[in-house]
Amino acid sequence: METGDRALTELVFGSFKNPKLAKKLCLVDANTLRALSYFEMDSKTSKAADLLNYVGVKPGDIVNLLLENSLGFFIPWLGSVKIGAVANPIDYFLPPNEILRILKYCKAKILVTQERFIWNFKERTNMPLLELIAEFLPNLLILVMPDKFEGKTRPSPFSSNREKSASALRWDKYIDCALPPRKEADNGKFSLSAEGSRVIKFRIKKLAEEHNLSENSRSLISNALFSVFTQYAFLAATAAGGTSVLAPAEFKNIQDVTSRWHINTLLSFYRVIELV
């Protein structure tokens, strides 16, 4: 996503700074009942931008994101956008050697990922991906986010030699990732107290117009993996001041989520066959 377009930045991030939207829910995880208000989105994505800038990310640099479909994905993604970097989501279902190939192809300098993709806490060993990175991309900087965006990262099982050859920093050393779970879903009447080129800006506006998105909209995002359209969907709902509800991608859960959260717009949805 090309992020130098001032108009797109104002369109989307302007909603984060809109005082009328400050306490309203911007993004909700229907599964964990964790949520981020517009004010919190602005605060956390700004801190993410500062962190990425602090570790040397510059406008035009590629920020690789190996993250689950969770609230945690949106923070470094939008943080990258804020400083004009190019966010590159990587399919976490890919085998480690394919992920390594992608990182080498884009001449990666930084990878934002989460614990379970690089550390095996049960066995107290490194995951195969980290072993490959340590061997073939020893200068790659890794920012480690907590699993499922639920709290602080745990001590790593790094062996001393690997620690020297692969640099990993704690995301939560700089940014508080912990989110208190909500006691219950907001099931009452909806009152919402609760990249950028011109083409992308056009698509966002078109989506908002086609679906009549507004501050009273609750839009469903349900994907196993984040696609370009998923990002458009979230940006369109955000630009309109509505709420995006992140649902589990399993088909059997969709009907329950749409009913429980009073979803009125299915912006991003497809059936997913679970991998076993």
Architecture overview:
This protein is α/β, with parallel strands linked by helices and 276 residues long. The protein folds into two domains: 1-33 and 181-276, Rossmann fold, CATH 3.40.50.980; 39-174, Rossmann fold (3-Layer(aba) Sandwich), CATH 3.40.50.980. It is built from eleven helices and twelve strands. The protein has helices at residues 6-17, 38-54, 71-82, 96-105, 115-118, 128-136, 160-165, 171-174, 198-210, 228-239, 251-260, and strands at 25-29, 35-37, 62-66, 86-89, 110-114, 119-120, 125-126, 141-145, 167-170, 218-222, 243-246, 265-269. The strands form three sheets. Strands 2-1-11-10-12 form a five-stranded mixed beta sheet. β10, α10 (228-239) and β11 (243-246) form a beta-alpha-beta unit. α1 crosses α2 (38-54) and α4 packs parallel to α6. The longest helix is centred in the first third of the chain and has 17 residues, at 38-54. The radius of gyration is 18 Å and the shape is globular. It starts with 5 loop residues before the first helix and ends in a 7-residue tail after the last strand. Mean pLDDT is 78; it is low at 159-166, 177-197 and 271-276.
Which characteristics define this entry?
Rossmann fold, alpha/beta, 2 domains, 5-stranded mixed beta sheet, 5-stranded parallel beta sheet, globular
